[in-house]
From TrEMBL:
Residues 13-127, 153-265 form the Rhodanese domain. The keyword Repeat applies. The keyword Repeat applies. Residues 259-282 are annotated as: Disordered. It holds the Pfam family Rhodanese. This is Sulfurtransferase. Keywords: Repeat, Transferase. One of its GO terms (molecular function) is thiosulfate-cyanide sulfurtransferase activity. SMART domains: RHOD. InterPro entries: Rhodanese-like_dom (IPR001763), Rhodanese-like_dom_sf (IPR036873), TST/MPST-like (IPR045078).
Length: 282
């Protein structure tokens, strides 16, 4: 498996890698339009809402994991095969492209983020459509060991909220049913993994960041965000830092906030409620 974050030197050494543009915007702007107006040469576009997520619902959240068959059909249709190496990028430090990279790595496909995204590209951009011949991509079930349930997110040793601080603290909530965070969760915004040029911090610096939060082993960690997208950035950062693989809570705050479970607000994690005999925190 290749590293979760690579640079242009890696691209130069792997000319057969498939470039994938995964631009997506919470404010509703079109990632596809952004791709058409300028993208890395040869890059195909993946739509996050249709290829990397199942339809939204209050029960499952805004970006539930896609069914394996849906994911496989979408990637195969774009010309991405089981044996391909995939390098994904966006224009926001990997905040949306990380979802594709994490999903692919979870099913054993070599995939990485291009460090710095489209802004790091030193050559001319290409405009317009890019198509590749459709190929076979096998549908594989998601690895249960890589996923956390809503109960896990309420009880794990380390629960990380990857959203911006204002949303974690409950000062604002632009899209979900309630403001705040899961009691006991700490706030490590995905943006804190990046420098001013939207490049990942060095692995040693990332390790220090997580160590300051009490994390030295990713296997003890569950990560969530608003809908399970930017959480993947923290998951890849943990791996890039050499701390191993944590678990994603796919429903994230969009699922949790639609329940009657308690929330916390403010800058502190808050106290977790005691568990009931069935193991569910109330």
């Amino acid at each position: 498996m290749i590293p979760p974050v690579v640079d242009q030197a890696f691209l130069a050494a792997h000319p057969d890698a498939v470039l994938v543009d995964v631009r997506w915007y919470l404010d509703g702007r079109s990632g596809r339009d952004a791709w058409l107006s300028g993208h890395l040469p040869g890059a195909v576009f993946v739509d996050l809402n249709t290829a990397l997520a199942a339809p939204p619902s209050a029960e499952a959240g805004r970006h539930p994991l896609p069914e394996p068959e849906q994911f496989a059909a979408a990637l195969g249709g774009l010309g991405i095969g089981d044996a391909d190496t995939v390098i994904a990028y966006d224009d926001a430090g990997g905040s949306s492209a990380g979802r594709l990279v994490w999903l692919l790595r979870t099913v054993g496909v070599s995939a990485a983020l291009l460090n710095g995204g489209i802004a790091s590209w030193e050559g001319p951009l290409e405009k317009g459509e890019v198509t590749r011949d459709a190929v076979s991509f096998a549908a594989r079930p998601w690895d249960a060991a890589a996923l956390a349930t809503i109960d896990d997110a309420a009880t794990a040793l380390h629960v990380v909220d990857a959203r911006a601080g204002a949303r974690y603290r409950g000062e604002t909530e632009p899209v979900d049913a309630r403001a705040g965070h899961i009691p006991g969760a700490i706030n490590l915004p995905f943006s804190g993994n990046l420098d001013a040029e939207q490049r990942f911090l060095a692995p040693a610096v990332l390790r220090q960041r997580f160590a300051q939060a009490g994390i030295s082993d990713a296997s003890t960690v569950v990560v969530y965000c608003g809908s399970g997208v930017t959480a993947c950035h923290d998951l890849l950062a943990l791996e890039y830092a050499g701390l191993g693989r944590a678990r994603l809570y796919p429903g994230s705050w969009s699922q949790y906030a639609a329940t009657t479970r308690p929330q916390a607000t403010g800058s502190e994690p808050g106290e977790r409620p005691s568990a009931t005999p069935d193991g569910v925190s109330r």
